[in-house]
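Task card 7
Instruction: Convert sequence to structure tokens.
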Amino acid sequence: MGHLLEVKDVTKIYEGGVLANHNVNFTVDEGEIHALVGENGAGKSTLMKMLYGLESVTSGHIYMNGEELKLQSSKDAIEHGIGMVHQHFMLVDSLTGAENMMLGMPKTSFISNKKRDIQITNEVAEKYNFDIDASRRVRDMSVGMKQKLEILKILYRSAKLIILDEPTAVLTPQETEELFERLIELKKRGMTIIFISHKLNEVKRISDRITVLKGGVTKGTYLTKDVSEEDISNLMVGREISFEYDKKQIEPGEEILRVQNVVYVDKFKVPKLQGVNLSVKRGEIVGIAGVEGNGQSELISIITGNMRAMEGRVFLNGKDISRESVTNIRKTGMSHVPEDRMIDGCAAEMSVQENLTVTNIDSFANKFGMIQKNKVKEHCRDQIKEFMIKTKDENQAIGSLSGGNIQKAIVAREFKAESDLLVLNQPTRGVDVGAISFIHSKILEMRENNKAILLSSADLNELISLSDRILVMHKGKIVASLSNSPKVTEQELGLYMLGIKKQEGVE
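Output:
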């Protein structure tokens, strides 16, 4: 068994002199599951994009079976037997599983044969023991099924090496289990897998070897059996990080948010919210769990005023905000950390200062209505310091910061606003371990400051660590309301999320 892949002294420098990878060295052996771990901004994604032909190599070499690769595109990578499943799936929602499977494949005849495509897809699925419905449109598939389809597409194109980027980020514990069983089967058939993750317990369970990246540099490759989760964490972060928090006992105060019988149907006539009721009080964190696509994002959009409910009402501080503008909702006492920081959270080309003050610039005006620039600057510098935002200074364009630092800036802005309710949607998605524990401590600080907090997260560990109550959504309904003391288990949440279990009398 030789090295299938060898990465030698690979360096990547982006325009503007940003160093993403520096002299990275690692090898992947044929038929192994090789984990690549590191904090966000450690250079994992950049390295994989170079292996998949999406980014050029500044210097260094990549060898496959001893032959040097000069990849210009993902098409080149696929031709060399390298496939990649991205964190955000590359599927066409309106097409069926079989149609997605055949996209880009050379056609044997001018007219596509739907029946034959479905048959081929089902045969490939059966061969690898993957359970998918090839005739179903992608938009009607569960997240787990979409992921299986992505992997099958790669297998059908005769890949020898599969790169999986954070494959379990969107899966329930039960779906993760099933994915791992499939990956181990693929390994037995001689497939080689690079598994990128920051979930160290999963890495320990599934990989043969682990390569650690820190600050764009490889910290070494280890046999998985020889290193503990603490060892890996220390290599990645340079310190141990615990997500066990001492939460103060707080008696919740008055009700701040009430959602009453909210109904929403999307443009495909799919009911996304079917009469949702919930409330959040001062001094409590209410978590929302659910497999992606079960109505959580629509619910958050309606609460924050970015979408209108078809039926039902939303009350903030006793005021009906169902038809109010986002600006008025903010003024009534709501802050919002959105799911997609680049689209909804910040203006990338504007400065850190402008992004930190865009929602409350009026508060820096003197009695003549003039903005006091020194006060603005001082406020921003205080926030940069308190929230440990790594930036040259407050005038740097926010889009040039790392994802974790953009997230910290958005959290700083929203947490410093004069609001009674914080709506947090995936507040730590795509940020590194150090930043996660920092943001968590700030969320708990807000709870102690008597804010009401609604937290929607795909990270079950995060929900369990922080929430006082957890609501579980399935097919647009709240199917469980669980007190999180004593702590709920991830497995139990997973059963409700998949609709296997339902609590009596919730709806």
